[in-house]
Design brief:
This protein has helices spanning 17-25, 44-50, 64-74, 92-103, 119-123, 139-144, 155-165, 183-187, 189-231, and strands at residues 4-10, 30-38, 54-58, 79-82, 87-88, 109-114, 134-138, 170-175, 179-180. The chain is of the alpha/beta class. It has one domain: Spore Coat Polysaccharide Biosynthesis Protein SpsA, Chain A (Alpha-Beta Complex). A seven-stranded mixed β-sheet has the order 3-2-1-4-7-6-8, with helices on both faces. The N and C termini lie far apart (54 Å). The relative contact order is 0.14.
């Protein structure tokens, strides 16, 4: 199988970064691990470096998507595995189940979704946007997303949209065994809530831009093209 570059954007994730890197080290498919230290004030970078990861440090945080882009620019391989830095309980088997479908060219992108405690919440994934920081994809898909959508938390919705628009096959799997440290616990109640609302705002903004404004623009262009063709020379 082709080798894979792992990219982990991290902002003040010293408590969990080692647990994210450890299962990647045990997976032969993962040929390099790049941690993008996005303006952290703790020892995230030092702990990642001690684990053997390549660390790229950004002095001032530019947001999740910008950190991902820095990691992609440094990555050697055409298959990319992205991981959030605040997940817990991640195993090599879980990572392999996300990466291998892309490495085998069964999918252009595959997403691992954190399982919810309630059954109905997992069932909603079949009707709601696929949002998850654990995903593998081919570099060509990343390159097909315009830079205007590579902002903060907008990137995951943008990847989903352009995967479908460009005819790429996308899959996902619910993984109940791994968890995630919530923002309110990591940052404190006020800052955590602010970051959560900012994330929700990003998702709503990019969804409106892609699924409403861009679709309306495409519809107008198709209609104009039909009118122009019908009028003829």
């Amino acid at each position: 199988m082709p080798r894979v570059s792992a990219v982990i954007p991290a902002y003040d994730e010293a408590a969990t970064i080692a647990g994210v890197i450890q299962p990647l080290l045990a997976l032969p498919l993962i040929d390099e691990i790049i941690v993008v230290n996005d303006g952290s004030s703790d020892d995230t970078a030092a702990r990642a470096r001690d684990m053997g990861a390549t660390v790229i440090s950004i002095p001032v945080s530019g947001g999740k998507a910008a950190a991902m882009a820095r990691g992609v620019a440094a990555a050697r391989h055409d298959i990319l595995y992205f991981s959030d830095a605040d997940v817990t309980g991640l195993t090599s088997a879980m990572v392999a189940s996300i990466v291998e479908p892309v490495a085998r060219r069964e999918f252009a992108m595959f997403v691992g979704i954190r399982g919810r405690k309630t059954y109905w919440a997992n069932r909603l994934l079949h009707f709601t946007p696929i949002i998850g920081g654990q995903r593998a994809l081919r570099r060509e898909l990343w390159d097909q997303v315009p830079s205007t959508y590579k902002k903060n938390f907008q990137i995951e919705i943008a990847l989903n949209f352009f995967a479908k628009q460009r005819g790429h096959h996308m899959g996902f799997k619910v993984m109940p065994a791994f968890g995630q440290v919530i923002k309110e616990r990591k940052r404190g109640l006020v800052q955590g809530l602010w970051q959560r609302f900012s994330m929700i705002g990003d998702i709503l903004i990019v969804s409106w831009r892609l699924y409403v404004l861009l679709q309306l623009q495409a519809h107008r262009e198709r209609r104009l093209s039909r009118v122009t063709t019908a009028s003829g020379p």
